[in-house]
Amino acid sequence: MSTPEKARENALPLLRTDQARDKLVMDLLALAHTGGKIPDQDTRIEQIWFQRFGVPFFPYKPTATVLRGFPGHGKTTAYFAAASEVAQRLGMDLVFEPEEPCEIGPNTLLIKTINLSGEVSNTAVSGIPQVGRYQSQDGREAAYTHRAPPFALAAAKYAGLAVVVGDDYNNAAPNIQNILNDLLDRGRAQGVDLGPRCLVGATGNLGAEDGANVHGTSTATATRTNSYMVEDVLEDWAQRTIAQYPDAIGDAGLAAFLESMPDLFHKPTRSKKGEPYPSPRTWSRCLQEHLRPFYAQVQHPAVRDNSTLQKRVLEDVMQRAAGLIGTAAADKLRTYYASVLDESLPLAREVLTTGQLTAKSQKRFAEKYGSGAAAEETTFLRQFYVCLVDESAKELVDAYLQGDHARFAKRFDAVLNGLYKYSQDASQHGWVAHYLSSRMVALSGQDPKIGIVRAQTNGVEVSLPLMDAMTKVAAKNSGACATTDGKKTLFDATFLSALTGMDAMQAPDEELLAAGPASAQSAPTAAPPPAAPTAEAPAPTQETAEAPTPPRRSPGMQMEF
């Protein structure tokens, strides 16, 4: 059963993982707003909100959120990603999973997850029982018990913001779920006081549908929380992954493979035998551990021209990758990469090196592409286009930023030859435009001369000057200048229309360019509206916990969904 079907069966609203993260970003900003007690902080939050979401801020008290769904879809990581973003935007120190006393203060954003999977003891939440002594005014004493919670939970109320997540809450015994209900509802339970600026949440699996052992979820939880089913989708995953690896290896062509076989993005098993299967999480880990090293190795001069060695490296890495994504997915990925190495990549390199294919290579291309109707023929063309982009993107970025117009024109003209000279099928050219722009923006570090990724839409926006440079090259390319029935050139009707459909950013002004990519990403698109009326909210305390040892800080966490 798919995630949308499971959501309908459980009457739960469905959110993409990125949407869940955005909801949690909103909640954290709402908690950080002081209702006028710290005006500068409130103004900054209102500006961030308007830049990020495109609407004015209005104060509210967040209700706890429970995210449910299949394993590996980024439920817990949505909390981490939201906290990391808010910490970065507000200039706060991100303290991740502190286990020992460390400095916690009003400029700290603390994150703590409580692993509740299989938990039957309340010590995970409320801590170990302690014996205290009470002395009355007339000098009499009485012994009593109280609990000493884990450091992170005890320190949460001293932080400027905190996030506490009950992970796999429905795998815990019912009595533990009841304790969590109090934390979700009031931020207090059995001696634990998380304070007024702590975002409490929970995550849970599905049970029989995903092979997890779970208890039932009570209506007490449902009436205390926002409850959602969460699903990571391939489009969001591919965009994040391309942005995550801004180098020549990039995503090793994996996003294109999954887009050609979308059923392999998430293929869960109901078995409880623990066999591996493809999911967003396992693909991300497979890419980082196996596929990027493999892609770099086969392109090294010592391996690139040795087909026997290439095949051996491919077999070895696919055998290891199967431990994450399963044998069936690894077999299909092996076939895909073998075709890339034997056919698509050499042809793409020839076009980019010489500007065209030899007669022998054109015949080879025609044999692989055929009529373009069969699935394997369409896959070959997509592979060829991926290789064109991956092999050209870095040089295009370097040439453009260095002002080397001749080198930029020569390389982009070769890309256009690959697109328009050897295939009559322009249906994939819009995808190529999006993929090339995404790779160029990532490789440039979001230099506004190339383009940026807007946080509000998570979409790539290409600079108009770069579009103009591409259009000038296309105007001299015979294949790109061929006209369609509508009298538009093929370039205008396919490639350029896809770029303009991504809401191209206007040419940045000199002040923005001088400030650099980070400023371009966070610069407001419009002046924020007048602040909405504010409700009362608690002001951050100036108290801090004692700190004999330094905290573990992660200001630049890369989130794996």
Q: Kindly, what is the distance between the CA atoms of the first and last residues, rounded to a whole number of angstroms?
A: 21 Å
Structural category is alpha/beta
The number of helical elements comes to 23
The chain-level mean pLDDT equals 83
Q: Would you state the CATH class of the domain at 3-124 and 155-233?
A: Alpha Beta
In the CATH hierarchy, the third-tier topology of the domain at 3-124 and 155-233 is known as Rossmann fold
Shape: elongated
Strand order across the largest sheet: 1-11-2-10-7-4-3
Low-confidence stretches: 503-559
By CATH, the architecture of the domain at 3-124 and 155-233 is named 3-Layer(aba) Sandwich
Cα gyration radius (Å) = 27 Å
The main sheet comes to:
7 strands, parallel
Strand content range: 5-15%
| Helix share, percent | 40-55%
The count of DSSP E runs of length 2 or more, i.e. the number of strands, is 13
Task: Describe what this molecule looks like in 3D.
The protein has 561 residues and is an alpha/beta fold. The protein has a domain at 3-124 and 155-233: Rossmann fold. It is 49% helix and 12% strand. Strands 1-11-2-10-7-4-3 form a 7-stranded parallel sheet, sandwiched between helices. It has a two-stranded antiparallel ribbon with strand order 5-6. A two-stranded antiparallel sheet has the order 8-9. Strand 8 and strand 9 form a beta hairpin. The chain is elongated.
Secondary structure elements and their pairing?
Layout (H helix, E strand, L loop, with lengths): L2 H7 L4 E3 H16 L6 H15 L11 E4 L6 H16 L2 E4 L11 E8 L7 H4 L1 E8 L5 E8 L2 H5 L5 E7 L6 H13 L1 E2 L2 E2 L4 E7 L14 H4 L3 E6 L2 H11 L9 H7 L19 H19 L2 H4 L2 H19 L1 H28 L4 H11 L5 H27 L3 H16 L8 H15 L7 E4 L4 E4 L1 H11 L3 H4 L8 H11 L9 H6 L1 H6 L39
Parallel strand pairs: 1-11, 2-10, 2-11, 3-4, 4-7, 7-10
Antiparallel strand pairs: 5-6, 8-9, 12-13
